[in-house]
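User: quick one
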Amino acid sequence: MAGDYHLEGRATLEALDDVHALFERITEPVASIDLMLFETAVVEVIGNVVAHGQLPGEVDYVLDLEVADGELVGVVRESGKTWPVDLDTLMPPESAESGRGLPLIRAVLDDFSFAREGDSSVWRLRRCRTA
Amino acid sequence: MIVLTATSEGVVTRLAVAGRLTMANAAELTQAVDAAVAGGAPKVVVDLSGTTFVDSSGLGALITGLRRTRQGGGDLRIAAPTEQVRAVLELTNLDRVLHPYASVEAAHDGW
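Assistant: Done. Structure below.
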């Protein structure tokens, strides 16, 4: 079974609650581990936009999720100005009090990319389904 | 949102985190840990049995709490993490420094 989900709004802390609410609406029979970890990745991406998008509080985002056969796909388009994004940053040591967001996203996805497309930044997420 | 409840249990402070521990509210956990340390009870058990979700900011707050309790002569232990929390702890290697106790009672062991 496949399904498409859409969410858009201003990238503020409230957007994180909206993302969780979106995942609660998913009705397709996706394995809980896949939904749980994909939700984790999406929340981290939106959180990045909230925390670092320029200008703070003035960035709009659009989230499109697809529950497809064999995979979960997400695209986040946001209107923030360019900021440095190092997708290859390594998981920090256990004592670190920050810096785990992007490594955590990479750890739960099969594909993850960031690119500027025109005036927007586009984050693409994909996780293969276990069931 | 989270509902954070601090309970004194002898020499231990139990912090129950109900809800999602994320960048929106991670500072509340840090503040609660600081209050326990400042109050002379730096042995803290974070009850995660009601924590339905944690993000990297929530993890950071747990590590900050670990550092601050140890600086205060105590320690921080986590108890009963739910499935998502346990998975994220393992993926970030934090289960090496934050050993998940099966229950709040087990987390009191030795204290």
